[in-house]
């Protein structure tokens, strides 16, 4: 069964001086302001496509890791994931760095790192972002 989620965006004005919004439409959970300066300079209380990608990556990765661990007979107690998406003018998205800290009772560090790599490989958002030149993972038990 396919599941479809939607988001929308509205923009007014030039690239440099314009501004817009992005709306999480399926859930109606939030509408966020966006602008070129929030993307290429400081956020100033606004979001960017890269921040939204980072959020999607974190949520998806945590679910992928949970599934991977469960398939290996382990129960994840908790996981905190941070994603840093690098945007470079003229080059686009050039780097995605994941930092993961998890509590998984009864698993060795080696088995955890293997599960973490498998989760990265099988995460649908990571797969969608495979065009990014560098995707790194720093995973450790908490």
Short description:
The protein is an alpha+beta fold and 142 residues long. It is 33% helix and 32% strand.
Percent in strands? 25-35%
* Strand arrangement in the largest pleated sheet: 1-2-3
What Rg, in angstroms, do the CA atoms define?
17 Å
The number of helical elements comes to: 4
**What does the average pLDDT come to?**
96
Shape: elongated
Which runs of at least 5 residues are low in confidence (pLDDT < 50)?
A: none
Report the span from N to C terminus.
Answer: 36 Å
User: What profile does the largest beta sheet have?
Assistant: 3 strands, antiparallel
The tally of strands reads 6
Helix-strand topology string: EEEHHEEHHE
Instruction: Tell me the structural class.
Output: alpha+beta
**Roughly what percent helix?**
25-40%
What descriptive keywords fit this protein?
elongated, alpha+beta, 3-stranded antiparallel β-sheet, 142 residues, 3-stranded mixed β-sheet
How would you characterize the overall build of this protein?
β2 and β3 form a beta hairpin. The model has no long low-confidence stretch (mean pLDDT 96). With 142 residues, the chain is α+β, with helices and mostly antiparallel strands. α2 crosses α3. The strands form two sheets. A three-stranded antiparallel β-sheet has the order 1-2-3. Strands 4-5-6 form a three-stranded mixed β-sheet, with helices on one face. The protein contains four helices and six strands; from the N terminus they run βββααββααβ.
């Amino acid at each position: 069964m396919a599941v479809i989620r939607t988001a929308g965006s509205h923009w007014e004005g030039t690239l440099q001086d314009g501004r817009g919004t992005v709306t999480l439409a399926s859930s109606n959970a939030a509408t966020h302001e966006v602008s070129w300066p929030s993307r290429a300079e400081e956020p100033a209380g606004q979001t960017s496509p890269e921040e939204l990608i980072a959020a999607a990556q974190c949520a998806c990765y945590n679910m992928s890791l949970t599934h991977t661990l469960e398939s290996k007979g382990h129960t994840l107690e908790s996981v905190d994931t941070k994603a840093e998406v690098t945007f470079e003018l003229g080059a686009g998205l050039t780097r995605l760095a994941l930092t993961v800290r998890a509590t998984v009772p009864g698993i060795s560090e080696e088995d955890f790192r293997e599960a973490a790599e498998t989760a990265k490989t099988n995460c649908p958002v990571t797969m969608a972002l495979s065009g990014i030149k560098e995707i790194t993972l720093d995973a450790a038990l908490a």
